[in-house]
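FORM 7B: Structural annotation worksheet

SECTION A. Query
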Amino acid sequence: QFIDRNRWSQEVGLVPADGSGKLRNLTQSGYEDFHPVFGRQGQVVLWASDRQGLHGSGGGARNDVDVFGMFLTRAAYDRYQLDKAEFAQLKAREEEDKKDEGKQDDKPADKKAADKKPSDKKPEGKDAGKKDEPAAKPLVVEAEGLDERVARLSTVSGDIRDYVLTPDGEQLFYVTKVEDGFELWQVRLREKDGHRVAQLPGGKIERVALALDAKGSSGFVMAGGQVHKF
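SECTION B. Predicted structure
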């Protein structure tokens, strides 16, 4: 999140963490774009924007915001746009692929050993016994058509404070401020179905935070100075 000094508005940008490149302005909307987070293992960038919500006027007036998503690759965007029937077919193919991979893993030990390459040998000495840590996958950004792969993910504009996408990219959860407290909303992105799932108490503390566990099976929301699990 950075300030575009030509318009003095907040924008969302992407910059290589190793300092090897320049900041890329992802939003360039002229509206207020803020609070960027990654989703679906770095395939999507989420942020809040007031481009479509109600705009207040006068001192202290606030603008309603929505959650938007930018899909960094064409494949991620195409997956998002599949309808329920098309997505079911895709999931069935992916399950078949997993089964095929499982059959390869079920090979007898002697067969596996024969298939191993010399580089597959386990380390000896001080590194023996250490588990192999998966290497971090580099972030892929397909620049062509990037600004065309943007979607409004929330279904109702409001005073949205925090949000998170489930690991599979199928559901969005967000917390919005209401007069007497906060509300937790759930959006099933495939069906474009959004609804309130919980009312949370307010209080003097305005700070809100929302997070899911690694599997996306449980969530935690801090609102009104209390932590709730769902």
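SECTION C. Observations
The two ends are 29 Å apart (CA to CA). The mean pLDDT is 86.

SECTION D. Sign-off
Analyst initials: ____
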